[in-house]
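Recall that a protein's primary structure is simply its ordered list of amino acids. Everything else, from secondary elements to tertiary packing, is in principle encoded there. The following example makes that idea concrete.
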Amino acid sequence: MPPERTEVQVRPGVESDLEVLTDIYNHYVRETPITFDTAAFTPEERRPWLLSHPEDGPHRLMVAAEPGPGGDSQRILGYATSSAFRPKPAYGTSVEVTVYLAPDAGRRGIGTLLYKALFEALAEEDLHRAYAGIVPPNEASTRLHERFGFRYVGTYREVGRKFGRYWDVAWYEKEL
């Protein structure tokens, strides 16, 4: 008998998600170049990040979750955020967006669900552009962003050093 298919739900992130969200992010810090953070975080160190993404406004945190074993809890599969693009006031109508998935949650359409919910939530905000930086090669991320209308605008060459080598960042933008 095939396993029962569970329904993934996307909702705003809440403080009780912090430990799992930190674990997901730390996987990418430790194992991949896709974030240029180089040291893992504790949940307490990530709390300001979580609190900078309220349930309304241009800076959002959306979480994808499915019912856990027994249905009493939720298993978080990933998250998407929109954050300040740059700190200066004139950048206020631009956001940087990103998606992080649990290591075993790829290739299930979770990133698509997260971005769909995020961009729907941002539709009524006073925003003009969304930007995403992708460390190549990352074909899955490139496909996801292009599916949502992002277009390539340029590459910062060897802009970050991690794991003993330099990495490029390809930048994509989307009209909002």
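The mean pLDDT is 94. Strands lie at 9-12, 61-67, 74-84, 94-101, 129-134, 151-162, 165-175.
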